[in-house]
Amino acid sequence: MGVAILVLPGDRSGDAPLGWLAVLLVAAIFTAIGAFASDRLRLPDDTLVSTALEMFCAGGLLTLIALVAGESAQLDALELSSRSAIAFAYLVVIGSVVAYSAFVWLLANASASTVATYAYVNPAVALILGWAVLSEEITPAMLAGAFIVLASVAVAMRRQEGRDHGPIDRV
Question: What single DSSP character describes residue 97?
């Protein structure tokens, strides 16, 4: 609910299309489903190998979708600014390789419900980074959405902690 409030129509930066914001919500849901399914799937023991396989498959699928959608016609690599190239490199190295490797490692070493909460915290972190780095405006609705997200994650983590440390048998 908090993520939905963060992207309310009429209260979004740059008037982002609502359909693409819905895709972001669906992506968070699929990430959580994937995190829970990872306990039941056989994955390579090496975190780096798991990460490389998953990113290669996802990247290949997204590239295919982009080509079918005609995205390549809009790309002119010679017109990219240095700022865009640096942002892309940052997203590839930090946002993908480092962050996703940490995510895969956590899936192998922590409960899936704990790991899945990252998908919901990310929009709140992005909100803060957008404000701090790009001077983006934060509206009261955005603050409310971020608060709901963070409070929900805190409650989920507290419930998980209670299960991990509570008595095994409850009568």
Answer: I
